[in-house]
Structures are given as C-alpha cells and as structure tokens.
C-alpha cells in the first residue's frame, strides 16, 4: 500500500470530527486509530518534496479538488511516475476518486458518478 505522507493526519482528523458529530464513539475512535497505526507499519509513504508540490500545483486548474485531495492525487502520480493508466487508486471519497479516474487511474473502493 502506497499512501501520501499526510494520510495519518487526515485519518485522525476525520475520527475526531466523527466523535464531535456523534457519529463515532471515543472507543470507536481509539479503535480506528489503533487500526490506522497498524496499517501505518505496513505501508510506504510518498514524502513531501518540491517535485510533488509542483505537480500538485498543476492539478487545481484541471480538477475540482480540495487542497488535501490535490496532495493525495499528486502523491499517487509521483508513485506511478505520472503514468496512471490502469494503476489502482483506492479511495472512499467520491470526488477524489472521480478526479483520479479522469486522469487515468483505475478506481477501487469508491462509487463514481458512472456507477
């Protein structure tokens, strides 16, 4: 599994938001954090770099994405050396998945508008 360097922060932020909204218990949040930490020991992270930032800066003009999603997609492009055709991209975020599909990734784990 290849992930963007900021993925753990995004996960922890999401868990905290769900607790605040009452959609997740503190116990559930703690369990989710432990699972995230276990996964973190097995994945490879794409680290921040000037090249990644430069690539990320080109994406908002082409795709309707939030800044965090831009970095996720740019990291995926760095991983595949900017050759996304047929490469898997896993996301449960519909907008990010659709954007990844638009540039050629094979989407796994999210429903797009075509589904």
Describe the structure.
- By secondary structure, the chain is mainly alpha-helical.
- It folds into two domains: 2-44, no CATH class; 48-108, no CATH class.
- 52% of the residues lie in helices and 10% in strands.
- It is built from five helices and four strands, in the order βααβααβαβ.
- The chain has helices spanning 7-20, 26-40, 50-58, 67-79, 94-102, and strands at residues 2-4, 44-46, 88-90, 106-108.
- It has a two-stranded parallel ribbon.
- Helix 1 (7-20) packs antiparallel against helix 2 (26-40) and helix 3 (50-58) crosses helix 4 (67-79).
- The protein is globular, with a radius of gyration of 15 Å.
Q: Beta fraction of the residues?
A: 5-15%
Helix content: 40-55%
Number of domains: 2
How many helices? The count is 5
Structural class based on helices, strands and sheet pairing = mainly alpha
Based on CA atoms alone, the radius of gyration comes out at: 15 Å
| Average pLDDT score | 93
Terminal residue distance? 25 Å
Shape: globular
Question: How many strands, which pairing sense, and closed or not: the largest β-sheet?
Answer: 2 strands, parallel
Helix and strand succession? Answer: EHHEHHEHE
- Number of distinct beta strands: 4
Give the strand line-up of the largest sheet. Answer: 1-2
- Low-pLDDT segments, ≥5 res: none
